[in-house]
Design a protein that fits this description.
The protein starts with a helix and ends with a strand. With 172 residues, the protein is mainly α. 8% of the residues are buried. The longest helix is centred in the N-terminal third of the chain and has 18 residues. The chain is 49% helix and 8% strand.
């Protein structure tokens, strides 16, 4: 059918369009009743993989939605997340190489991804700065316990440093 339409478009002769299209449709239906096409026959003879036929709309697979099996508990990073949260995130699953970077904790619009190594570098840099501030105490666990009592200044500091790390922004 597409061959006939292309021939009419190239020549510009549309006077015989209807009879030619009707004859093409008749030939196609006759050929499909007689057996598989030559291409389908070759695929079957050579035992090549091919796409299965499209199932009807009453198929039970049409009743399955993405929300039925998608993972809703996604770990993500945003500009004002705390160092404690980043530490928790990195300790949760060591297989993840990238984390989603979203607009905010409440408004989870995906902006890009952040590599695990960048987050680890950010956390190590923060711990190094905190350790140098503490002259009496040498324990990193004390530093991380102080992180639980963060105030707004530490949120701003995290936000500034998060904007400094490399984020792969998606263009939508």
């Amino acid at each position: 059918m597409s061959t006939g339409v292309m021939a009419f478009e190239m020549t510009g002769q549309v006077t015989h369009l209807l009879p030619v299209i009707v004859s093409i449709l008749t030939a196609t239906m006759t050929a499909s009743l007689l057996g598989p096409s030559i291409y389908d026959s070759l695929i079957i003879l050579k035992k090549l993989p091919y796409l299965p036929s499209i199932l009807s709309s009453s198929f039970a697979g049409n009743q399955i939605f993405v929300e039925d099996f998608m993972n809703k508990d996604i770990q993500f990073v945003w500009a004002k997340c705390t160092y404690r949260y980043i530490r928790h995130l990195l300790s949760l699953n060591k297989k993840f190489r990238f984390y989603p970077y979203v607009k905010s904790d409440k408004n989870r619009i995906l902006l890009g991804t952040v590599e695990r190594t960048e987050l680890q570098f950010l956390l190590d840099d923060y711990l190094r700065k905190q350790k140098s501030k503490l002259t009496k105490q040498n324990s990193i666990s004390v530093i991380l316990e102080e992180d639980e009592n963060e105030d707004y200044e530490s949120y701003e500091q995290t936000s500034k440093e998060m904007s400094a790390i490399e984020v792969n922004i998606y263009s939508i």
